[in-house]
């Protein structure tokens, strides 16, 4: 973008905003007409013919509406042996789109071939996707009418043969540059060095390494065969792991554990069980407590004496042991 303006056809140049202000370049290429198309287009040199178009470099900016006006300005200047500079800010998108539309209108080339002609002269030419779609729509719906209009308004054929001959040379040059990888079509992969600097050349984004969790990876037995399945480190704290806390299920209904669930023991639960025996009655009881004081208190507490076997109610005769009929007959 800083190598100066570039010739794309005889009498037609494409450049950037800096080139449009440089008097040395303007004198070198004998520029007589300047087509300025950017956000703050204005006349700079009083001795030049200007066409200023206010347009942003946005995909939704409509440039098609200016194609006929630009074609008249460029073609009329070239027919009078003038030299035209088309420029925007960077000389990559807006100015290139206008140049491609003009080449399509004065030659039989389609928009892709016309873009190759411009790229052969200016390697950084790369209209945004919105402008490329506008060029395609212009070719499909309006190009035939625009060619007819130009022929009726400018019946001179002085530039027809020279423009076609120059376009063939530029297309051959483009193919040679493409084979030698000194130019690209704006499709370089991310991380690959673009020969023209048009494509992004940043390195591929590396995935951020995951920070290891405080919980260690545990292999849990799965199935009968005893195969182990390693659990990935969870983000749960160590406190929830030691207390065998069961986390809530995820939205998919899956559970995540950080350790092997074990059955709580008496010591782990902080409870102690003491059997107390009454030395007098022979009865026993269970004392449950979580401290030594509780256990002593349970041992010293009186226990319920053992009950003797219940006797038969008064008035009811004691039934003798049942004997079978066979024994009764024998007796």
From TrEMBL:
Q: Which SUPFAM superfamilies match?
A: (Phosphotyrosine protein) phosphatases II (SSF52799)
Biased-composition ranges for Polar residues? 264-275
What is an example of a Pfam family matching this protein? DSPc
All copies of the Tyrosine-protein phosphatase domain together span 4-144
The Low complexity compositionally biased stretches are 232-243, 299-310
Keywords for the protein's UniProt record, in alphabetical order: Hydrolase, Protein phosphatase
Q: Where is the composition biased (Basic residues)?
A: 202-211, 319-331
Which family would the database say this protein is a member of?
Belongs to the protein-tyrosine phosphatase family. Non-receptor class dual specificity subfamily.
Q: What is this protein called?
A: Dual specificity protein phosphatase 22-like
